[in-house]
Amino acid sequence: MTYFLQVNLHCTPLQAGCAFLPFSVGIIATTTLGGPLVTRLGPKTLMAAGSTLATAGLFWRTRLDTASGYAGEVLPTQILVSVGVGLFFLAGPNVALSGVDPHDAGVASAALSTSQQIGAALGPALLNTLYVSAVTGYRTSRSESPGQAPQSVQLEAHLHGYRIAFIVAGALPAAAVVALLALVKTPKSTASDAAAPDPGH
After folding, report:
1. What is the largest CA-CA distance in the chain?
2. What is the pLDDT of residues 122-138, one digit of tens each?
3. Model-level pTM greater than 0.85?
């Protein structure tokens, strides 16, 4: 998305950075205000819903073209993905630490944090590699060197790279939904506890 903002929409680096602020606001708002939903709906439901929203937002970005703008395409997808990511990480620790003995909670929490850091490092590296490879392949298929390709071909090459990267990016949370539904078990007591709250509270 940084490439799209600067290459296709001609944003300066500062403008591109400011354009990402709604994404951060969406995550902060979701994780701040969504706490009661964890108890009401359960962490598995929230994580699946969040992954689905993120998938929808990322696949929506595959439709970017030369006529796409910030307000019509970029901003709505930012909101979808940010809310989805916020819901996922809001409920994630509940699932990761569920059933862990108290004396192992520190190790489990550290493993969760480590996996998040690894994902944050590998994700951009993978997607940027796919993007660059797709752009280069698109130009090569048209027998044009990067320095001699017409402006229209270069822009189309970038758009092709975005689509490939966003297809793969969208497939990852889609796979997470499948894994959540297949592997994460909902405690039987959750539904009854939510339906019959303690009258003392």
Report:
1. 74
2. 988 999 999 999 998 88
3. no
